[in-house]
Design goal:
Radius of gyration: 25 Å
Structural class: alpha/beta
Number of domains: 3
Largest sheet: 8 strands, mixed
Shape: elongated
Helix content: 40-55%
Strand order of the largest sheet: 4-3-5-10-6-9-7-8
CATH topology of the largest domain: D-Maltodextrin-Binding Protein, domain 2
CATH class of the largest domain: Alpha Beta
Length: 290
């Protein structure tokens, strides 16, 4: 199967037009059409319904997804080989929850870079479901998420568990009873509402609290609180001088897991960074919050 024919197909599928695809690839339309026909013969299926309007078939849609993965892998291969010529030993691609990347990983990245300056680290900020999908599709070497993986194709390593605290902006020095009467309580969706009900008596003591759950994103809720727009129950790893802790809930915790494919190619560069993370986060999770 020729990569060139896959490129002809993919560009046509992306643009929905033979002529535009041929122009983009700087080839003649007959050459492009012939390449796609050769691909259809090789795959023994029709990739497009040809008529007044070009329509991609179900087999074509599947092939388009495979092409996206293949071209991304080819780009990564070219980049890796080019970097090898510059003395770089490897590149690690990881998907990490935004709050974990912003508040736990800076020190890990700095320490690892000092130890292994010839390894390049690339990160994607994403939510758990998207990270899982991209690891399964081999677009990421590993992911950091906040629950056990639901995919049987993935294995997880427990990294640590972080308790939560009720926080407001450090500029807010009022008592909790006054804050509860005047401020919104930002939570991370219905699941956190249930967790708060089951693990704290906060809502029983202050039934007048106005609960909002605008986004399922720790980093965004933290910014809402810092901006003085309300209070939130956040994992302790995001605490800082710009937040004031009102109450601590050691029984309300957020676990952190590292996920990887069960069946994966050996990669000593990725293994080295993963081992470094496991050790570093294990230490961080045990440290008292100042």
């Amino acid at each position: 199967m020729e990569i060139r024919n896959l490129q002809y197909f993919y560009e046509t599928a992306r643009l929905g037009n033979f002529s535009k695809a041929a122009d983009n690839l700087a080839v003649t339309q007959p050459a492009l059409s012939m390449g796609i026909q050769n691909l259809e013969r090789e795959l023994k299926c029709q990739l497009f319904k040809r008529g007044r309007r070009l329509e991609i078939t179900a087999q074509g849609e599947r092939l388009k997804l495979h092409c996206e993965k293949l071209f991304a892998l080819l780009d990564e291969m070219r980049e890796d080989i080019a970097l090898a010529g510059k003395g770089v030993k490897g590149v690690v691609h990881a998907g990490i929850l935004e709050s974990v990347l912003l508040h736990i990983f800076p020190r890990i990245i700095a320490d690892f870079a000092a130890t292994c300056p010839d390894i390049i680290l690339k990160f994607e900020k994403a939510e758990t479901q998207q990270i899982e999908r991209r690891v399964v599709e081999r677009q990421l070497d590993f992911g950091i998420i906040s629950r056990v993986s639901i995919s049987k194709k993935l294995e997880e390593t427990f990294l640590g568990c972080f308790p939560h605290s009720l926080v407001v902006s450090s500029a807010n020095r009022q008592r909790l009873s006054i804050i509860a009467a005047k401020n919104n309580l930002f939570l991370l969706g219905n699941w956190q509402i249930e967790a708060v009900k089951n693990n704290t008596d906060l809502l029983e003591r202050f039934p007048e609290i106005n609960i909002l759950h605008p986004v399922n994103c720790v980093a965004m809720l933290r910014q809402l609180v810092v901006s003085g727009l309300g209070m939130a129950i956040l994992p302790d790893y995001v605490l800082g001088n710009d937040l004031r802790v009102i109450e601590k809930y050691d029984q309300l915790t957020m676990p952190i897991y590292l996920i990887r494919l069960r069946k994966r190619l050996a990669n000593h560069v990725v293994d080295k960074f993963v081992d470094f993370i496991v050790g570093a986060i294990g230490i961080i999770a045990k440290l008292p919050v100042s």
